[in-house]
Amino acid sequence: MKKRVHVAVGVILRNDQVFLTRRHVHQHQGGKWEFPGGKVETDETVHQALHRELMEEVAIDTLAMRPLMNIAHDYEDKSVLLEVFVVDQFSGEPESQEGMEQGWFKVSELSNLEFPNANKDIIVKLQNP
Ligand SMILES: Nc1nc2c([nH]c(=O)n2[C@H]2C[C@H](O)[C@@H](COP(=O)(O)OP(=O)(O)OP(=O)(O)O)O2)c(=O)[nH]1
Ligand SMILES: [Mg+2]
């Protein structure tokens, strides 16, 4: 098995809604909804990575993050370790900088959306706090 890709993931939460973007079709797990985030680079902490990714991808300045859960998942073509944080303090209004479909969705509605399989436990945890 190849090296597990370490990914910082942000659940951007405001009241009872989360902000999602939709992965481009050509990306890994393309076409599915995601929590914004991305790969942790060498010499970077997961916190630095999440702060950087949320700035790059959706142009918010993360003011606080709290750990929600870690998920190791093996896709057929790739293994990932998702470190998931809830981000409920940020400045700026999230907006995809990469031209992705985006939106705010009620936590209770997340079961109706298509996510990468690794995300299943995140949805369960958000809906059953
Ligand atoms: N951002 C994000 N990635 C997820 C989620 N669920 C999930 O399985 N992944 C996987 C898909 C990818 O294989 C990996 C994240 O990679 P990414 O494409 O976001 O990484 P990145 O932003 O650094 O992008 P790039 O520069 O490598 O294109 O984690 C999720 O909810 N959000
Ligand atoms: Mg990304």
From TrEMBL:
GO BP: DNA repair; DNA replication
E.C. designation(s): 3.6.1.55
Keywords for this protein: DNA damage, DNA repair, DNA replication, Hydrolase, Magnesium, Metal-binding, Mutator protein
Residues holding 8-oxo-dGTP: R23, H28, E34, F35, P36, G37, N119
Superkingdom of source: Bacteria
Binding, Mg(2+): G37, E57
GO terms of molecular function: 8-oxo-7,8-dihydrodeoxyguanosine triphosphate pyrophosphatase activity; 8-oxo-7,8-dihydroguanosine triphosphate pyrophosphatase activity; 8-oxo-dGDP phosphatase activity; 8-oxo-GDP phosphatase activity; metal ion binding
Annotated organism of origin: Thalassotalea litorea
Residue ranges constituting the Nudix hydrolase domain according to the UniProt record: 2-129
Family: Belongs to the Nudix hydrolase family.
Cofactors required: Mg(2+)
SUPFAM superfamilies noted in UniProt: Nudix
Protein name: 8-oxo-dGTP diphosphatase
Gene name as annotated: mutT
Catalytic activity: 8-oxo-dGTP + H2O = 8-oxo-dGMP + diphosphate + H(+); 8-oxo-GTP + H2O = 8-oxo-GMP + diphosphate + H(+)
InterPro entries (UniProt xref): Mutator_MutT, MutT-like, MutY_C, Nudix_hydrolase, NUDIX_hydrolase-like_dom_sf, NUDIX_hydrolase_dom
